[in-house]
Design goal:
CATH architecture of the largest domain: 3-Layer(aba) Sandwich
Radius of gyration: 23 Å
Structural class: alpha/beta
Bound molecules: adenosine-5'-diphosphate, magnesium ion
Largest sheet: 6 strands, parallel
CATH class of the largest domain: Alpha Beta
Number of helices: 16
Number of domains: 2
Mean pLDDT: 91
Low-confidence stretches: 1-21
Strand order of the largest sheet: 3-4-2-1-5-6
Shape: globular
Distance between the termini: 53 Å
Strand content: 5-15%
Length: about 425
């Protein structure tokens, strides 16, 4: 197969011989059969609420984006109105089963106190054990206790039943609003469920699942997916599930270079995942037999060195040199992608199109984001860094929906059942 030199449109406009396949995403609708927070009897109850407050922190431990906290406020307010004792449980980062101060939930606790100035919010130094039990026993209705990071215990990720039981002993009812962790079978997201008779999902979970299920089950066509970012491995696995589902897949960001390499282009020092070259060749072949067009950049922005570049330029993909690092999609590609997007009725975006954190390399991501907003194209933003890009540009309130869970939404796109939903009480 020699793809080198082909135009970026791998499946051409008139190549419409392929048959669209109907993918089955009905598993995502499973949540409709489960109890939501409004189906539970919560009045005056002690409620363990699993949230995902795994927020980005700067080097001083300050929260740089608190969307995940803000988005669960409807659930917290509802529980306060029900006069509950609210025990909030979230992991933070990857402390690998050890107590690490940098991953304590104190910044979350402080931010919550700011958001809820009239509520008594307290914080425990662990998530299980006698001291936590004592603090819970002293709680009054309408109060909140923020527990310490469950990932300080290796048993959280192991989904240890004894640890799950200890967590569940803290409360009467379990509510999950942790969409971003809903694909994980951990003690606090999954293992606790058998120990609770009553368990349901919160408002954030509901909102996330509704947006995604609408996009996947009843896509407004043409449906375009933008894939960028640098987690090439995670996202490549999704592509095969998108073939036949999406009408177009626009590739950008760090993702693009492994594709270009697979097609025989020199990509210089750009990010790549060599283990995936054969898969990419397969996907490109398979895409031809479906009604999905895969688009790749025609030109890119390159520099000689990411940290202190002395040279930054826009080059066609045929002119990437050995010393070049690809950092953004180029001007021609931006215009070309805008045209595809203008014809799209629905867009799901996972992964920024360049190293947007740097002003010099933000252009592709920013221009495409602006185009979607100005043209009022229905857009759901997946990945965490893509969401951060929208925040950085000040576009966060102008886009249709920004998900709080990139990994979870990718899993859903693969058709995975969410364990954290499957284990809830049936209606
Ligand atoms: P998301 O969280 O939106 O799913 P990822 O986590 O996969 O996205 O990747 C986000 C990161 O990808 C950003 O920090 C961005 O700087 C980086 N990135 C984008 N384009 C490139 C590139 N060409 N080379 C290296 N990193 C890139
Ligand atoms: Mg990310």
């Amino acid at each position: 197969m020699t793809l080198k030199g082909e135009k970026s449109v791998l499946i051409t406009e008139n190549d419409r011989t392929a048959v669209p396949i109907q993918r089955d995403f009905s598993s995502i609708l499973q949540f409709k059969e489960k109890k939501s927070i409004t189906d539970l009897d919560l009045r005056n109850k002690k409620v363990l609420v699993r949230v995902d407050f795994n927020v980005p922190l700067d080097e001083y431990g300050n929260i740089t984006d608190s969307r995940r906290i803000r988005m669960t406020l409807p659930t917290i307010h509802y529980l306060l109105n029900e006069n509950c004792k609210i025990i909030l449980l979230s992991h933070l980062g990857r402390p690998d089963g050890k107590i690490k101060d940098a991953f304590r939930t104190d910044p979350i606790y402080k931010r919550l106190k700011e958001y809820l100035p009239f509520v008594n919010v307290d914080k425990a130094d662990d998530c299980v054990g006698p001291e936590v039990e004592r603090m819970v026993s002293k709680m009054k209705r309408g109060e909140i206790l923020v527990l310490e990071n469950p990932r300080f215990h290796p048993n959280e990720k192991k989904c240890d039943p004894e640890f799950s039981k200890q967590l569940s002993d803290l409360a009467d009812v379990y509510v999950t609003d942790a969409f971003a962790t809903a694909h994980r079978r951990h003690a606090s997201t999954y293992g606790v469920c058998p120990f609770f008779k009553e368990k349901g999902y919160g408002f954030l979970m509901e909102k996330e699942l509704k947006f995604l299920s609408n996009c996947l089950n009843k896509p407004k066509r043409p449906f375009t997916i933008i894939l960028g970012g640098k987690k090439v491995n995670d996202k490549l696995d999704v592509i095969k599930y998108l073939l036949g589902l999406a009408d177009a897949v626009l590739i950008g960001g760090g993702m693009a270079y492994t594709f270009l390499l697979a097609m025989g282009y020199n990509i210089g020092k750009s990010i790549r995942d060599l283990s995936k070259l054969d898969n990419i060749r397969d996907y490109l072949e398979t895409a031809r037999s479906y009604n999905t067009k895969i688009f790749l950049p025609r030109d890119v922005v390159v520099c000689d060195e990411l940290d202190y570049p002395s040279e930054i330029k826009n080059v066609p993909i045929t002119e990437i040199r050995d010393n070049h690092v690809g950092v953004d999609i180029g001007e021609e590609t931006i215009e070309y992608y805008k045209k595809v997007l203008s014809k799209s009725s629905q867009v799901v975006w996972q992964g920024p199109l360049g190293v947007f954190e740097r002003k010099e390399f933000e252009n592709g991501t920013k221009e495409i984001a602006r185009h979607l907003i100005e043209n009022e194209i229905y857009t759901v933003i997946g990945g965490g860094d893509s969401a951060a890009a929208f925040e950085k540009f000040g576009f966060q309130d102008d886009v249709s929906f920004i998900s709080t869970g990139g990994g979870a939404s990718l899993e859903i796109m693969k058709g995975t059942l969410l364990p954290a939903i499957a284990c809830l009480t049936d209606k």
